[in-house]
């Protein structure tokens, strides 16, 4: 459609960021627009973090509950003092070593942090994305609030086309745009750590390993529950139209997703055959979207069974997608 053509701007060509695309995005954000932004995890729907009206549009476009916090994307560890206060030393060490990267740190919010970003909590989630396009936009425009660029509770987008398919009809081609930075290489959302106590606690699993968190931060990861609300914590989330089941019981005409070497049940539609856990994470959302595009009523997914953080993250996303 013409609207889609007007909205999408190529931002990554032959391994290089397109400066003109970054400038367009920075101008749009400064004028109160929203931008579909590629990151290494999933595409985000970005608004200038301190522009209340623009962030409000993000909530409206997504259909996101107002008490659901959003992650503020910053340009690096030097931004921590502008957004957090009494930040634990281990959190600062994690930011210094693991940013840019798929790691969100929830820290006590500075007094001037708008509570429309935090879901009314006195904490704020901060992340520095590793995608060169996202970093260039943040460096040009300042910090952005950027939850995933899809309708709330549905499958997260990992391409610019996914963003258009989900929310293109809710964007304004005059004021908004979607930057096409190619497919997201990680494919599932960032690890979220609660850093409000003397030990970090995992609120959402992602690609960062616990032993790396403990080695870099110098603190053991706590297994205690947390009262902090974080994105992606609802029982039902990341859900396609197709019903999702875990295992390999696919019947003829149903979708099936599993690692290479796992045979496809007779008559089932093989959605992908990733060779390892990292490849599985990169295609899991694509596979769920493909199932919907094919009109499949059911998807069976046999997730990776290893103990890596990324495998735990994939199992978590699929388990939430299976809740109806």
Strand-helix topology:
Blueprint: H1 2-7, E1 8-10, E2 12-13, E3 16-17, H2 19-30, E4 35-37, E5 44-48, H3 52-62, E6 71-73, H4 80-83, H5 89-98, E7 103-108, E8 123-127, H6 132-141, E9 144-145, H7 160-167, E10 177-180, E11 191-194, E12 201-204, H8 210-217, E13 243-246, E14 255-257, E15 269-272, H9 277-293, E16 298-301, H10 309-321
Parallel strand pairs: 1-10, 4-10, 6-8, 7-11, 13-16, 14-15, 14-16
Antiparallel strand pairs: 2-3, 4-5, 5-9, 6-9, 7-8, 11-12
Helix pairs in contact: 2-6, 9-10
Structure, explained:
The chain has 324 residues and is of the alpha/beta class. The protein folds into two domains: 2-217, DHBP synthase (Alpha-Beta Complex), CATH 3.90.870; 243-321, no CATH class. The chain is 31% helix and 18% strand. It has ten helices and 16 strands. The protein has helices at 2-7, 19-30, 52-62, 80-83, 89-98, 132-141, 160-167, 210-217, 277-293, 309-321, and strands at 8-10, 12-13, 16-17, 35-37, 44-48, 71-73, 103-108, 123-127, 144-145, 177-180, 191-194, 201-204, 243-246, 255-257, 269-272, 298-301. The strands form three sheets. The chain has a ten-stranded mixed beta sheet, with helices on both faces. A four-stranded parallel beta sheet has the order 13-16-14-15. The model has no long low-confidence stretch (mean pLDDT 96).
């Amino acid at each position: 459609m013409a609207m889609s053509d007007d909205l999408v701007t190529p931002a990554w060509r032959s391994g290089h960021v397109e400066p003109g695309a970054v400038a367009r995005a920075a101008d749009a954000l400064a004028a109160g627009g929203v931008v579909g932004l590629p990151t290494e995890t999933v595409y985000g729907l970005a608004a200038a973090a301190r522009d209340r009206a623009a962030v409000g549009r993000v909530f409206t476009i997504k259909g996101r509950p107002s008490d659901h916090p959003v992650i503020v994307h910053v340009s690096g560890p030097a931004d921590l003092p502008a957004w957090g206060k009494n930040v634990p030393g281990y959190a600062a060490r994690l930011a210094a070593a693991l940013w840019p990267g798929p790691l969100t740190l929830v820290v006590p919010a500075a007094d001037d942090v708008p509570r429309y970003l935090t879901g009314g909590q006195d904490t704020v989630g901060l992340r520095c994305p590793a995608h060169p396009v996202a970093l260039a936009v943040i460096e040009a425009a300042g910090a952005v609030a950027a939850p995933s660029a899809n309708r709330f509770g549905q499958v997260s987008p990992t391409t610019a086309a996914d963003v258009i398919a989900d929310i293109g009809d809710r964007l304004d081609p005059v004021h908004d745009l979607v930057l096409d930075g190619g497919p997201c290489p990680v494919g599932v959302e960032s690890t979220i750590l609660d850093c409000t106590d003397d030990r970090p606690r995992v609120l959402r699993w992602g690609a960062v390993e616990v032993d790396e968190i403990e080695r870099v931060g110098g603190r053991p990861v706590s297994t205690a529950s947390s009262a902090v609300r974080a994105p992606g914590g609802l029982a039902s989330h990341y859900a396609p139209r197709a019903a999702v089941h875990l295992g390999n019981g696919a019947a003829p005409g149903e979708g099936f997703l599993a690692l290479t070497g796992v045979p496809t049940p007779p008559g089932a539609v093989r959605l992908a055959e990733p060779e390892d856990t990292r490849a599985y994470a990169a295609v899991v959302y694509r596979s769920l979207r493909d199932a919907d595009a094919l009109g499949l009523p059911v998807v069976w997914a046999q997730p990776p069974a290893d103990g890596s953080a990324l495998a735990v993250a994939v199992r978590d996303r699929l388990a939430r997608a299976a809740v109806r």
